[in-house]
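Saturday, quiet lab. Running sequence design on the structure tokens for the scaffold JK sent over.
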């Protein structure tokens, strides 16, 4: 009988009206603290969500390329690597630090806030915060540019096939990859454009969300077709964020996929362009300020974490051999003077056994 497929984290959970994103780097020596938190995530989600079962609270955790070998003595995911920056003719997609991603979702902002607060409390002193964003649903699921976002997200079996790793990497079946970027919008310049110009850039009508035949549009450049002629999909959970008082308006881009190759190709097409249309013109109004790639382990792996690399090495390696006694301290050798205790073989002047140091640091 075939064993059941590994359980995924809740990457396929539906979009919610609130979200929080934490991107962290791990301090030297903080690995144990991070692992303890990762192993407790499912229980924390149950605890915080228990009083609001209809709020859909969940948390997805991702591990960056540089952190994987520090946290786990386990084979690396086949396609895990640092985010690759992209230099287009006019626009740049930067790579920024990130060892851990926590993507929290719920229908209530307070639940995301409480869960994020507990994560940071548990990790205090073990991590450095690189980025924190509180996302929200805007109007009828629109971004701050005024267009509906996420229309073409796959659903059901199509979504699972697009997002969840299968037999191609059996040790990581049930996992996913995720790329996140933080975009800041120049809304004054964008809103000065006529609606028809905005629609040609996006590739959809603004009021009715109907797709247009617009070569070189944002929709067109993000449509990737495989060798078999089928469109290759990712799952976007983008969220608006901002602070009107600071004049900050943005979109937090987050794309889950079975392979990062698909998302990377979409970004390459956006920033470098596809002749003859050039780069995605949305980038003339939206600037990428972060970029990181993470592997999202299966829920099963988080429930039963592989050992720390140092622990695995100590378990596998034999202990250091005791150094031989110097000839002058061996009473059985010819010419060796008797010991002060009357020649009791194998004891030192203080009566201790001459078998080396038994401090914990010398034990295997």
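Result came back. Writing it out in full:
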């Amino acid at each position: 009988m075939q064993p059941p497929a590994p359980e995924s984290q809740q990457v396929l959970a539906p979009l919610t009206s609130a979200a929080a994103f934490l991107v962290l780097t791990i301090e030297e020596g903080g690995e144990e603290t991070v692992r303890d938190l990762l192993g407790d995530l499912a229980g924390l989600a149950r605890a915080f969500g228990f009083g609001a079962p209809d709020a859909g609270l969940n948390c997805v955790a991702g591990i960056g390329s540089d952190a994987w070998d520090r946290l786990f003595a386990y084979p690396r995911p086949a396609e895990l690597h640092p985010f690759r920056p992209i230099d287009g003719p006019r626009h740049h997609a930067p790579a920024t630090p990130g060892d851990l991603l926590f993507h929290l979702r719920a229908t209530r902002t307070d639940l995301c806030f409480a869960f994020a607060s507990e994560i940071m409390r548990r990790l205090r002193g073990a991590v450095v915060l690189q980025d924190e964003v509180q996302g929200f649903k805007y109007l009828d699921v629109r971004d701050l540019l005024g267009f509906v976002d996420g229309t073409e997200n796959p659903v059901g079996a199509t979504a699972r096939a697009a997002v969840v790793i299968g037999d191609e990497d059996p040790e990581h079946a049930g996992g996913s990859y995720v790329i996140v970027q933080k975009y800041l919008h120049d809304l004054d310049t964008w809103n000065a454009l006529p609606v028809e110009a905005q629609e040609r850039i996006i590739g959809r009508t603004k009021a009715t969300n109907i797709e247009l035949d617009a070569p070189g549009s944002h929709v067109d450049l993000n449509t990737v077709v495989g060798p078999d002629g089928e469109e290759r999909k990712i799952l976007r959970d983008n969220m608006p964020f901002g602070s009107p008082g600071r004049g900050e308006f943005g979109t937090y881009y987050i794309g889950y996929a079975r392979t990062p190759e698909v998302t990377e190709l979409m970004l390459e097409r956006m920033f470098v362009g596809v002749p003859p249309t050039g780069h995605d013109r949305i980038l003339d109004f939206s600037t990428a300020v972060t970029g990181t790639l993470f592997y999202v382990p299966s829920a099963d792996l988080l429930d039963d974490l592989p050992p720390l690399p140092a622990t695995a090495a100590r378990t596998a390696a034999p202990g250091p051999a005791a150094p031989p006694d110097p000839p002058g301290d061996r009473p059985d050798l010819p010419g060796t003077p008797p010991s002060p205790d009357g020649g009791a073989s194998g004891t030192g002047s203080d009566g201790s056994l001459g078998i080396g140091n038994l401090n914990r640091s010398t034990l295997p």
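Notes for JK: The CA atoms of residues 24 and 130 lie 5 Å apart. The two ends are 41 Å apart (CA to CA). Ask whether to fix the surface positions before the next round.
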